[in-house]
Amino acid sequence: MKGIGKITGVLVWVCLSLTAFAQPRVDVLRCELLTNPIGIDKTNPRLSWQIQADGRNVVQTAYHILVASSPEKLAQHIGDLWDSGKQISDNSISVFYDGKALKSDMEVFWKVKVSTNQGESDWSAPASWRVGLLYYKDWNRRWIGFDGYFDSDDKDAGYLSARYFRKEISLTKEVQQATAYIMGLGLYELYIDGKKIGDQVLAPGLTDYTKNVKYNVFDVTESLSGKEHALGVILGNGRYYAIRQEKPYKVKNFGFPKMQMQIRITYTDGSQQTIHTDDTWKGTTEGPILSNNEYDGEIYDARKELRGWATVGYDDGAWRKAEYVQEPGGNYEAQLNRNMKVMQDLKAVSIIAKGDGKYIIDYGQNFSGWVKMRVQGESGAKVTLRFAESLNEDGTLFRDNLRAAKATDVYVLKGQGVEEWEPRFTYHGFRYVEVEGYPGEALTDNFVGRLVYDEMETVGSFSSSNGLLNQIYTNAWWGIASNYKSIPVDCPQRNERQAWLGDRPISAYGENFMFDNANFYFKWLEDIRLSQKEDGAIPDVAPAFWRYYSDNMTWPGTYLIIADMLYQQTGDIRVLQNHYPAMKRWMQYMQARYMDDEGIITKDSYGDWCAPPATIEEGRGKSADKKYPNPLLSTAYYYHLLNMMARFSEHTENVQDRVAFEQAAEKMKIDFNKRFYHPGGYYGKNTLTENILAMYFGLVEDGNKEKLADRIVTIIENENNGHLSTGVVGTQWIMRTLTDIGRSDLAYKLATNTAYPSWGYMIEHGATTIWELWNGDTAHPRMNSQNHVMMLGDLIVWYYENLAGIKSEENGFQTIVMKPELIAGLDHVDARYESLYGEIVSNWTKHKSAFEWKIAIPENAKAVVYLPAKETSSITEGNKNLSAHKDIKILSADADRVKIAIGSGTYQFKTKL
């Protein structure tokens, strides 16, 4: 039997010689987790593919990769760059290119053939990647811009008008291939012949530009057909020209907007040409974008539009000659994480006239992005859009929690028929918009809300029989998406929007089940590494746009925790290899500066940040911006990270380090218990967070675990009346700790509470995302974002790993552990996750005396499954008794669970409870 299948992204046709077995297919062929990417500056990129089949237990046994310099050679099965030969391996997600040295701007073609336990495939259809610019000298020209203020700028307010640059070119030959490389800082839009190149927005990704600068790459071959062309670039401020400069000791300012670009052209006759930025370009600041600022918004005067400015023949006689300017200083790097994009449009649910020419628009959902407006009126008419997350009791905008951010867009009409406009270089966090000065009747169709976040797929889904759980999940999705802004910002609305490390340690773990965000977080780890001081200190915010190096464990510790998450979820060993030296240096720095003679890490900056006031009234009108440092937290984290570093040492073959880290952890456990354990069976001041950290991190002596578990339960059930009392630190670990001590029922109670403090309380009080504070409806607005993710903690991880039972055991889900928690009151869960191997499904339903469970395991993966059943004989799969299936291995059985091993495929289990 011959089986024909495909590889997603690039098609791979697989022909297998089989007997009575369903046809396997190979799906998804990727380089660096991207499909057919251009601009890869890795010299040994990671190659991955996916195998799919209708049958079961398909396992890869070998692979053969060919990499060629041309599609013709690849078609002839010539791997002139790399012929891996047949490699006996089950690795299909992390094979590193090991061929000839690659050259800048080189296109590379590859294909793969796999052998499985069911037969051998044919060669896949070709895939490709284009090498980026590998060396500094590949750019070989200078930066251009205008280093200074103009009459169009407002120096006192810190506002710059956008910079426009243009150049006309003449091509004498037919273009075969053209690739544009651009670094436009702070933000850019690239045009050829008046048409924008790409659908990205707010590009490129944010970095500390003195450390590294991201370049974007575009295939512009089709845009350069013909002889005469015009190139145009608009530069916005972004964070290059600092958003706020009144505190230069705090906020980094990098200078005025600037750019460097080149277009590499190969003609059909084989000759080549490169077009560079130089002083033959011309520029102006007299365009319609009068100011652009991430906090304050954009002011656009359509009367000043430069019609045809990026087309051939435009009269640029009044424009200035572009100036050569100083380079940013950072290394030039290809941006492997995708840019931001308009990912979804929202229609307003209502528009209410408020008098005085004002309207309030409600989108029914808190999100980040902007409004695309359609308007018609007289020249000079001004429409003002003000943004907010919620309303005051009188129906006006509540903007007190924006701090100093103006969050306002202004559009001045040119007065020529219907005009359509949206900003280019700003974004807002909002649900409501106040419109002032709109001519005519304001209709919902004239104000489209645009959701903007980093372009990435939603790879997970979760639904259950509990509507509140489902709504919390939906709120989490909107909050997470809203805060993806090339870095994981804390909030999208006020004058902050920084990537605080303390917000994301385990939240990022849960996010990975929802979004294809691996490259996003790979990039952020680099931001953290590059922000490290020579002595080892790591900041609280990275990139360090704010100079906060407070030295504590719980915030910078996120560096290690996310590296661990990425390794676990993707199997990419480079994340540990690349960051191990920096992580080790930070651990040594913290020990040298802050470990006392009794083995305690004495420095903590924030304590359990934003722990809820005891009652909603107790916190009314009060700011949550208070710090309660606690050496128990810093010491517990240091112990946890010592054990993590011991594992990292093993994975990276630093054997001596492993022994040292393990010995240090053993000593610290003793010292920790001497200092913080009380005979009453609790730690420190007996707070919920202190006890949870000791339990989850494994700091408790065996003989004391039961007493500590009782204390944790007593605090929640009795002292907190069935509620949590954790801040951002404790909430990262609470749900899994309760599950580990056998109280998943109590974790479920916390997840489904609607009284304060709880996630359900937020929803009961109108939240459509996740609040920054448990008491976000009554706290002082100074620090009270309505769209944060830090209080998600480990909730989403718990959804997937404990409620659905989908957890990676090793190598990015090649081995999966499936063990859902059965909790009274929860009768159904349906969760799906697109791992690198393929989709994993856990869809279970609990009846009074029976349990049904549909499981899907991707090819080249396997699972250890814990079936809830009293005895093996009561279990069926596909209406056949479990013992009748030769492809299912029974591993063990106890009073509650039957443990089995299964391979790839789809299964339908039924058990008696």
TrEMBL record:
Domain (Alpha-L-rhamnosidase C-terminal) ranges: 805-879
The protein's enzyme class: hydrolase
GO molecular function: alpha-L-rhamnosidase activity
Pfam families in the record: Bac_rhamnosid, Bac_rhamnosid6H, Bac_rhamnosid_C, Bac_rhamnosid_N, Ig_Rha78A_N
GO BP annotations, alphabetical order: carbohydrate metabolic process
Start and end residues of each Alpha-L-rhamnosidase concanavalin-like domain: 354-453
Keyword Nucleotide-binding carried by entry: no
Keywords, ordered alphabetically: Hydrolase
Domain (Alpha-L-rhamnosidase six-hairpin glycosidase) ranges: 458-803
Catalytic reactions on record: Hydrolysis of terminal non-reducing alpha-L-rhamnose residues in alpha-L-rhamnosides
InterPro entries named in the record: 6-hairpin_glycosidase_sf (IPR008928), 6hp_glycosidase-like_sf (IPR012341), Alpha_rhamnosid (IPR016007), Bac_rhamnosid6H (IPR035396), Bac_rhamnosid_C (IPR035398), Bac_rhamnosid_N (IPR013737), Ig-like_fold (IPR013783), Rhamnosid_concanavalin (IPR008902)
Highest rank taxon of the organism: Bacteria
EC number(s) per entry: 3.2.1.40
Residue ranges that the Swiss-Prot or TrEMBL entry lists as coiled coil: none
Domain Bacterial alpha-L-rhamnosidase N-terminal positions: 173-343
UniProt keyword Hydrolase present: yes
Protein's UniProt name: alpha-L-rhamnosidase
Native species: Sphingobacterium haloxyli
